[in-house]
Amino acid sequence: MGVEDMSEDLTTSSSDNDLDVEFDEFSSWGAWFCSMKGNEFFCEVDEDYIRDGFNLSGLSNQVPWYEYALDVLTDGSHSLKNEVLTAGEEAEVEASSEILYGLIHARYIITARGLNRMLEKYKSCGFGRCPRVMCSGQPCLPVGLSDVPRQSTVKLFCPHCEDVFYPRSKYQGHVDGAYFGTTFPHLFLMTFPQLRPEKRGEMYVPKVFGFKISPLAYSNNTKDTGGSGRHVRTRGGEEQESRGNKNAGSTSTSGMKKSKQHTG
Questions:
Q1: Phi and psi of 242, rounded to 5°?
Q2: DSSP, residue by residue, 188-241
């Protein structure tokens, strides 16, 4: 074994020990996962919900190493030490565990218990506020633009302007949007209608020297070419083309006159 290989093994074992120490401080894998930087939008899923096979219907086809990942979520990954897995396989199982937890989380937060857990975060502005000035710091809700994993990252939905924004944290901005789904924020506001903000309809109005800008101010200058009725936007090729059409029209007119004279 070379020096480089030994250093890699030492680094790996050191990081594994640190991970074990950190994990031992929490009651479950979900609690540890939610405490990680960038995972602040997640709530802890009840373990009995994870153990209910009905709630996991269809997920085995979406998650690699499904059985191992499920074992991690329910037993805290310590059972993996009794399995003969390579370091690469263990890393794949850990990644699959995060995917599985995220997909279960998307289902859990639209249940009664899940909605109430997310309500606690919402009341404390745990998801952040709308960056739009006219929304006056309206608390936001996480939302996915797709229910399919690896399609888009999580966004923030503002109940006031009903638009979506990127999270401010770059760590939160890397979270898969499918772990929250497209339904959650809207079902949340339907469940707690008292939290829906009053629509004030305030919009920013662009002004120049104190005057509102007319939409016509942004349109291109037009010029009537006369008989042809065409408008020329530039003084370049289009105007020359217009003149060419006029010349073509005069040529055809003179040709008609000549043909009439010849006929007479």
A1: -65, -40
A2: HHHHSGGGSPP--------EETTEEPPGGGGSPP--B-STT--B-S-SSHHHHH
* Rounded-to-integer distance, Cα 69 and Cα 56, Å: 12
pTM (predicted TM-score): 0.71
Residue with the two structure tokens 């006159």: 257
Q: What end-to-end distance do the CA atoms of the chain give, in Å? A: 108
pLDDT tens per residue, range 184-232: 999 999 999 999 998 877 888 889 999 999 888 888 655 444 444 444 4
- 109 vs 10: CA distance, rounded Å: 40
Burial of 15 (0-12, 13-18, 19+ CB in 10 A): exposed
Residue positions counted in the chain: 264
Q: How far apart are CA 13 and CA 19, in angstroms?
A: 10
For residue range 98-147, list pLDDT tens digits in order: 999 999 999 999 999 999 999 999 999 999 999 999 999 999 999 999 99
What are φ and ψ of residue 114, in 5° steps? -65, -40
